Amino acid sequence: MSLANKNILLGVTGGIAAYKSAELVRELVQADSRVRVVMTRAAKEFITPLTFQALSGHRVTSDEFDAAEASNGMDHIALARWADAILIAPASANTIAKLTHGNADNLLSTICLATQAPIALAPAMNKAMWANAATQDNCALLKKRGLYLFGPGAGQQACGDIGEGRMFEPHQLLLSLTNLFNTGELTGLNVLITAGPTREAIDPVRYISNRSSGRMGYALAEAARDAGATVQLISGPVALTAPENVDCIQVSTAQEMLAAVQQGIETQQIFISCAAVADYRPVTKQVEKIKKLHQDLSLSLVRNPDIVAEVTKIKNKPFVVGFAAETRELEKYALQKLNYKRLDMIAANNVVDPQLGFDSEENALEVYWIGGHSSLERDKKTKLARKLISLISERYANTNKQNNVTILKNAKDRSQNPR
Question: What is the value of pTM for the model shown?
Answer without folding.
Answer: 0.82
